[in-house]
Amino acid sequence: MEGEHPENLVYGRNAVLELLREKPESVEKIYFQFNTSHPKLKEIIITARRQKIVTGKARLEKLSLIAGTTKHQGVAALISTVSYYTVEELLAAPRNSAPLLVVLQGLDDPHNIGAIIRTAEAVAADGVVLVEGKGAPVNAVVHKASAGALSHMRVAKVKSLVRCLELLHREGIQVLATDMEAETNYTDADFRKATAIVLGAEGSGLAPEAMEFCDRVVRIPMAGCVESLNVSVSAGVMLYEAMRQRLS
Q: Cross-referenced InterPro entries, in alphabetical order (predicted)?
């Protein structure tokens, strides 16, 4: 929660409730006080969860720090400063003749999201796709970690990862995932094709139902003692292999 700025928040029960009614797509996350006995606070929480908006509890002192005021009435909503695209929009006007996308299932660390967006922009990928209500919100920490790339990279949001992968299949885009147990090295995949690299959450990896929609699962070889790479490093390895193949 550290690093989020008050100008990106709406606080107060009436203000947050109105925001949920009129512009729910702009809300990244709602923080509320542990004691939620107030009827409007309960209505806010129910409405947010119905709309699959991420919510989190915060102690009074922490909520005041997030909101930048003690007059928050027990609730604060983090507002996105990003204009989101649809996947269809990303594909309708690609940067590359063979589109290159990164799809994130739901990363919990905003630093990882920012780092992936930064690398995606460095290789001129066509977009990064996030799943609504999953993982960390796109907040000031993501902006900082992206080192300005978030202002240039197109970011899309989808309600369902599986439906997103189904759409990519219909559009003729190969879906690649990584797994330590895969038999094929990532360098053997053909990144010159239209490609979507799908990455799972830290720790748990990609959901089994999403794996079923992957055309190919590849591994990144490991020679040392560590068992796996950080997800943003894995994304970097895959993206730069895509750029290497395409430039050659």
A: Alpha/beta_knot_MTases, Ribosomal_eL30-like_sf, rRNA_MeTrfase_TrmH, SpoU_MeTrfase, SpoU_subst-bd, tRNA_m1G_MTases_N
For every residue of 82-122, DSSP letters joined together read S--B-HHHHHHS-SSSS-EEEEES--S-HHHHHHHHHHHHH
Measured CA to CA in angstroms, residue 238 lies from 61, 129, 219 at distances of 42, 16, 10
Spell out a b/e string for 3-41, using b for 16 or more CB atoms within 10 Å of the CB, else e: ebeeebbbbbbebbbebbeeeeebbbbbbbbeeeeeebb
Distance CA 206, CA 115 (A): 19
pLDDT in tens, 64-113: 888 888 889 999 988 877 788 999 999 999 999 999 999 999 898 989 99
User: Which amino acid makes up residue 210?
Assistant: A
**pTM of the predicted model as reported, rounded to 2 decimal places:** 0.75
In a domain, 129, yes or no: yes
Neighbour order of strands in the sheet with 195-199: 155-158, 127-131, 100-104, 195-199, 174-178, 216-219, 184-185
- Three-state DSSP class for 125? coil
Please choose, from the candidates 196, 204, 190, 188, the residue with its C-alpha nearest in 3D space to the C-alpha of residue 235.
196
pLDDT digits (tens, 9 = 90+) for 10-60: 888 998 998 898 878 778 889 998 877 889 999 999 999 888 888 889 888
- For the record, the structure tokens of 49 come out as 């969860």
Both 115 and 202 in one domain: the answer is yes
Same domain, yes or no: 116 and 231: yes
> What φ, ψ does residue 144 adopt, rounded to 5°?
-65, -45
Question: Which phi-psi region, left, alpha or beta, contains residue 16 (left: φ > 0; alpha: ψ -120 to 50)?
Answer: alpha
- The answer to whether the Cα torsion of 5, 67, 49, 33 is positive or negative is positive
